[in-house]
Amino acid sequence: MATSPCSSSGVSSSSSSGLGADAGLEIRTRSVEQTLVPLVSQITTLINHKDKPKRSDKTLQAIQRVGQAVNLAVGRFVTVGEAIANENHELKEEMSVACIEARRAGETIAQLTDVASLDHPESDSHITIFTDKTGVVKAARLLLSSVTKVLVLADRIVIKQIITSRNKVLATMEQLEKVSSFQEFVQIFSQFGNEMVEFAHLTGDRQNDLKDEKKKARMAASRAVLEKCTMMLLTASKTCLRHPDCESARINKDGVFHRMRLALEQVIEIVTDSRPNGENEVAPISIYSGIKEFKNKVEGLRENLYFLSKENLSTMLEVILEHTEDFTDSAYTSHEHREHILELSKQAKMELEQLVSVWMQAQNQKTKDLMEDLEVAILKTCQCMNELKREVHSAATSLAADLLKYHTDHMVLKALKITGVEGNLEAVAEYTCKLSEQKEQLVEMCRLLRHVSGTEPLEITCIHAEDTFQVTGPQIISAAETLALHPSSKIAKENLEVFCEAWESQLSDMSLLLREINDVFEGRRGEKRVYLSLPRPGKHNANLKALKPVKLDTEEQAKIAKLGLELHLLTADVDSETEKWEDQENEIVQHGQGMSSMAYSMYLFTRGEGLLKTTQDLFHQAEIFATEGTKLASALHALSDQVHDDDKPLLLLEAEKLISMCKQLQITAKASAQGKSATFTKVDACILKTRNVMTLLCQLLPLCCKLLRKNKAGNGCLKPAPPWKEDRIRTGTNARTPERRVDTFGIKSLENHVTNMTFLESK
Questions:
Q1: CA-to-CA distance for 112 and 132, rounded, in angstroms?
Q2: Which of the four CATH numbers 1.20.120.230, 1.20.1250.20, 1.10.1790.10, 1.10.1660.10 does domain 30-116+131-156 have?
Q3: Of 145, 249, 169, which Cα lies nearest the Cα of 491?
Q4: CB count, 10 Å around CB of 245?
Q5: What is the tens place of the pLDDT at every residue in 574-604?
Q6: How many CB atoms lie within 10 A of CB 307?
Q7: Which of 137, 396, 587, 756 has its CB 3.0 to 4.6 Å from that of 635, i.e. a possible disulfide?
Q8: What digits encode the pLDDT tens for the residues 445-460?
Q9: What is the pTM of this model?
Q10: What Pfam families does the database record attribute to this sequence (predicted)?
Q11: How far apart are CA 315 and CA 290, in angstroms?
Q12: Where are the domains of the chain?
């Protein structure tokens, strides 16, 4: 399976070194990119020494150590690559070539850096890094290129595993479609369940590893479909087996199988970055993205009056205004919003005409007055577009809020269940019409929300929601018709319940989506999602203990509002600190971001908002928060083991302080509280202690960032990683589970060996 070419490999390096990986290799995953980072860093440092005039004995020894260490690490890396090649014959030839190139490049670097024993390396006949300046650059380029090839080839194996897993799922689905007895169905469905679990693990890892946020959102949507459809497939198939002559039951089952196949196909499209028949994906343009691009072009006129044509700008505005017709033509847009959108559309055309007029004059005569007029025209055009953006946002979100509130009682679904059990076909027909109307309203809501979602991942979530309502509505209708035809059938009743639950779940998800869209619009959280650590309530969570939900009254919420506000400000500070880190995949950053998201959920609780509905939800979140803090402390200890620096004692002291505070928070969260007063005291204590942890986190993040930057600049040093063990390969070849195979013969094992390339940098 070939990877498509790309203009950029995604591997950055120092411009002074002239290094870069093979431009023909596209790196789509974080694991491949991050595996290359230490190698690029060390090679770049090595190359930059060739131009430094000062060459002390200490420097020469350091250069030789780095060269030899790189060569040894490359040798170990190549050994793993060759083992992968032997396990995967279709990639053996390509992998072997890349391994040979890497080994040769590593040996060349070792030879060129063999300078420690030379008193005057530049005058000796021996060719070194100082005498052959281009040779070491060529060797470094070859090394990076060949290592990248090995990593990308290993990544293809992960893709192959996902495709193989998908094929197994499809084959079992075909068997499930053809079964005619319950006994046979139960046996095959058990196998199907195991295969779906394997597929979920593989695709979940891939989703987390993808660099492209848009692809990540598409993968999440497809996996959500598969997860929900698995339960639907079970009940729909059982209903069809119980009532084999029922047409509505067959339609219901066929719909589930069709949707699962589409979702499986989309997963493969994402992981292989290909589409059927070679067609390119054409993403629908939203009003938000159109306005953003239009404003960028308009504001660009300040710097360059000639970089685009007036026709180009006019066409862009026409496209935006065409999309506003989705609002003005909608039966669900209020008269007031429709009028405002039409007025602003007319004003936008006038402002652009004025802008073009001044712009054309400025091209011919660049006077001070004309440039001032141009600035005014730019500001007025952009202001008009901002008002249009605000108006469509208001129209979409107010419609969504009204619809979600109106349908929150699920009256139509309840009526379908009742009339279905009664066998009242006439009443079922009446309520299916009402459900169809409701579906059209919700589909229109999703289409309008997509225009104002603000980010590509949220746009994809809106499209996924629209598809879900489009498909689930008719499936509920066919399930209700089946129950009405067989009112005493328990399996038909259970089947209708499952489809109704899917509808209710999607409505619940829409409330969260609406909140996120508003947050993006108001600039509160950007693209960051609230940390979802709580299990979703439902009848399938029967293993959870029944908890008495306790909510705070208005007076109690007012008391903790000040603490909540402090917590909110601290989350903003932590987010600001994490954004300063170059390596966003660093373990410390990941834990910090997770803790910030959880603290934000707790802040929303103090306002009576968010996912934490009861005090028990808050206490559970506090426990998870404390656990994440303990994990962060472990990461800090790991950092202190690697770093030799004057700040090390302070780092260890702060880590111990964090562990102590997290333990106290866990004790508080787990303590029993009887009665309203005791519960409120516990809530207050949990939020107070969370605030204290966040305050400490605000101090820790810049300290860690400073230490890492010092080491990168050469003011400290990183200890070499533990020696590589030969028996890792032998252990891997005997692994039986898919997860173990991925871990040993995939990117993760190669990561471990490229880590060995991080060695002493010269001071």
A1: 8
A2: 1.20.120.230
A3: 249
A4: 7
A5: 887 887 787 777 889 888 888 988 888 888 8
A6: 10
A7: 587
A8: 999 999 999 888 999 9
A9: 0.64
A10: Vinculin (PF01044)
A11: 11
A12: 30-116+131-156, 164-275, 287-400, 554-713
